[in-house]
Amino acid sequence: MIVDLLKDLVRAMGRYIRYHTTRIFNRKQEVRMDTSRRPASPADPAVATPALIETLSNQPGLDAAYERLVQWPPYRENGPAQEVLSDSLYQMWTTLPRGHKWTHYFGIYQTVFGPHRTEPLRILEIGVFGGSSLRLWKKYFSHADTVIVGIDIEPECIQFDAPADGIRVRIGSQADPTFLKSVVREFGPFDLIIDDGSHHSSHMIASFNHLYAEGLKDSGIYLAEDLHANYWLPWRDSRRSFLDMCKELMEHMHGHYQRASLAAFKVGTSGQPMSVLEVPLITTMIKEIRVFDSIAVIYKTRREYIPYYLQTAD
Ligand SMILES: C[S@@+](CC[C@H](N)C(=O)[O-])C[C@H]1O[C@@H](n2cnc3c(N)ncnc32)[C@H](O)[C@@H]1O
User: Fold this and answer.
1) In 3-state terms, what secondary structure has residue 66?
2) At the N or C end, where does the chain have fewer CB atoms within 10 A?
3) What is the pLDDT of residues 286-301, one digit of tens each?
4) Would the CB of 128 count as within 6 Å of ligand 1?
5) Is the CB of 203 under 6 A from ligand 1?
């Protein structure tokens, strides 16, 4: 009885917090809107709507020739490729205990993280295990003020909490919004978020949903790894994989083109003000999505401008 009452109370508090967070976040978005501009016509006749697309030719996509089966690789080698062996981050990682990683990730980390290596960063890594990657990031990112925060569901991971070294650890689930909020409140918002946690599809998607808007800075980078686990059991535990969600993000990144056609993007040239479009919130928050073998990287931004189409003189 008392337990049920407590559960109801916790649920009501969750709803209250969610309601106010959304309200505050939406208000921030509204303030930025210039309502003096003309809204785009809600029914732009040149937009290919989903209903219209349904009626078009059902032409197959990729040519079947690309899908014919081949023997791969043409030769077999034991151990990582030469380019991995000569990678400085891989070499650094091999000196640290209790690591387990796919060796092709190091080149990807260098590509994505390299440009930010010397900046003072707040980094969140989901999945601590033996503390290997926390130590790796602390060595790799060279700024003295950089803080690496690890979260893990296993209580013993708290042993890697080392405030004096700029490494912090908190215990909880990556799928628990209340826990994630408390981590963001304590250490965030973050410049980089790395998901190397449970690799369950439902958890990966939940973490992204709970962290992307409030937990990641506007210029932040969200990197999710081991996407291949979503092809395997027991990690695939939801209909959508993380990669499926990335495909949704790619579509949403182009949300403005789904609501207005070319004329809306070049009206400025004829002296008319640019249209205001109604787009999903996420359309205004994605700069770039990169997909590598088993790693997806979502670059966040606050898109202040709709792309502008311009023609120079003939
Ligand atoms: C692949 S290991 C992390 C390895 C670490 N990043 C490294 O490279 O050294 C995955 C970790 O995720 C943790 N984990 C599993 N389920 C989790 C969950 N729901 N929330 C947070 N962490 C979880 C596991 O306890 C495990 O320590």
Assistant:
1) helix
2) C
3) 999 999 999 999 999 9
4) yes
5) yes
Please write the tens of the pLDDT for every residue from 147-186: 999 999 999 999 999 999 999 999 999 999 999 999 999 9
Q: How far apart are CA 138 and CA 123, in angstroms?
A: 10
Distance from C-alpha of 4 to C-alpha of 6, rounded to nearest angstrom = 5
Mutate to test the pocket of ligand 1, among 105, 153, 180, 235 (most ligand atoms within 8 A of CB): 153
Ligand 1 mean position, distance from CA 211 (Å): 17
List of domains in the chain: 88-300 (3.40.50.150)
**Cα-to-chain-centroid distance, residue 60:** 30
pLDDT band (50, 70, 90) for residue 2: low
Residue in 116, 199, 203, 228 annotated catalytic: 199
Strands 147-152 and 167-171: parallel
Q: What is the mean pLDDT of the chain?
A: 88
